[in-house]
Design a protein that fits this description.
By secondary structure, the protein is an all-alpha fold. The protein is built from 6 helices and no strands. The chain is 83% helix and 0% strand. It is globular and about 55 Å long.
Length: 126
């Protein structure tokens, strides 16, 4: 039974890693565009620009792979367990956005991350 739990935890971590990579690609893509959209014409132009960026499609691919792993996890574990451990994504995205996108992470955000880590440990132990 322990091996099954470690497999599920590993797959949830993999899901979160792929989702984090997806979010980084999507955020860097959106940062490269002018976001002054105030008319339907500009919204259509913006959408056309967005779908022509290869990083958007790479982000979609990583998101799709993440979804595939997630569906497998859901087929093998309880939703309340899987969804609680899926909170690791918040930690990974915060760390990755600071590291790769150079976003500032406030002390209160770090405190929140510490609370999430303790919560994940409680869920994994229970």
């Amino acid at each position: 039974m322990k091996q099954h739990i470690f497999l599920i935890i590993g797959l949830i971590l993999l899901t979160d890693i792929f989702d984090t990579i997806s979010q980084l690609f999507l955020k860097s893509s959106i940062n490269s565009l002018d976001l002054h959209v105030n008319t339907i014409k500009k919204a259509l132009q913006f959408t056309w620009q967005l779908i022509r960026i290869p990083r958007v499609w790479i982000g979609f691919i990583f998101s799709t792979v993440s979804l595939g792993f997630w569906l497998f996890v859901l087929s093998k574990s309880d939703l309340n367990f899987a969804f609680s451990l899926d909170s690791m994504r918040y930690i990974l995205i915060t760390l990755a956005s600071g590291l790769f996108l150079k976003e500032k992470i406030s002390p209160s955000r770090w405190m929140g991350i510490i609370c999430v880590v303790f919560g994940i440990m409680l869920v994994a132990a229970g």
